[in-house]
Amino acid sequence: MTTLPESWYRELKQELQKPYFEHLTQRVGQTYLEHPAATFPPQAQVFRAFELCPWDAVKVVILGQDPYPTQGHANGLCFSVAADIKPLPKSLQNIFKERKSDLQLPDLPNGSLEQWAKQGVLLLNSVLTVEEGKPDSHKNWGWEQFTDAVIEKIASDKTNVVFMLWGAKAQKKAGHIDASKHLILKSAHPSPLAAHRGFFGCKHFSKTNAFLRMVGAREIQW
To answer: Does an H or E element contain 40, and which?
Structure first.
């Protein structure tokens, strides 16, 4: 399996040496070996969120659940798809609806969120791999422990990071974050089943930029 980029490896080295992580990488690596076309995202993109958003650049964390289990959709960034994917996944459609309503901006040209990542938005799933057609299929393999450690490291070593926690699963990570050092934004999940219960109208995009302005950081061009 691919490895973390250098900036993150330095910060997480101790975590990566723990027995659970070694077991996790062996299990995931074996899955890619046996089912390369049905394990998502493509193996080279497992740590893409970290590649596009280096440690020093992190200003915002958006937390998803696990990758899209649909062929061609998952690309290593939570909620994002490749630029040529049509139609967009329903959750991403709802994210774009809220973005448009909140910021009064025109629609983005496609479903790729790479430009967010390159501005310091860590688009992190709680679980980084999945089997085709089977959401949560790699749940409890060890990814959750790893992403808990990522959140804890960011929360302890940085200040003034915005954590956007959408849905009950993401909100469980709030226990790892010191709210006196960071901004924690919570809402319902953007999925069609939940978006009308508090995701629409949450204004997380404008709230994030207002906070970044307040602490003297550059706003995100959503």
So the answer is: strand 39-40
Other residues' Cβ atoms within 10 Å of the Cβ of residue 36: 10
What's the full length of the chain, in residues?
Answer: 222
- The answer for 68, left when phi > 0, alpha when psi is -120 to 50, beta otherwise, is beta
pLDDT in tens, 63-109: 999 999 999 999 999 999 999 999 999 999 999 999 999 999 999 99
Q: What is the mean pLDDT of residues 104-119?
A: 97
Burial (CB count <10 Å: 0-12, 13-18, 19+), residue 177: buried
Q: List, by residue number, the catalytic residues.
A: 66
186: alpha, beta or left? (left if phi > 0; alpha if psi -120 to 50)? beta
Q: Could you tell me which residues come within 8 angstroms of residue 57 by beta carbon, excluding any fewer than 6 positions away?
A: 119, 120
From the list 149, 163, 159, the residue with the least C-alpha distance to 181 is 159
Determine if the peptide bond prior to 41 is cis (ω within 30°): yes
Q: What does the DSSP 8-state code read for residue 220?
A: P
**Residue 99 φ/ψ, nearest 5 degrees:** -55, -45
The H or E element spanning position 213 is helix 204-214
pTM of the model as a whole: 0.97
Any residues with CB less than 8 A from the CB of 102 and at least 6 apart, and which?
202, 203, 204, 205, 206
Token digits of residue 73: 């959709």
Number of other CB atoms surrounding residue 40 within 10 Å: 27
* Amino acid in position 200: F
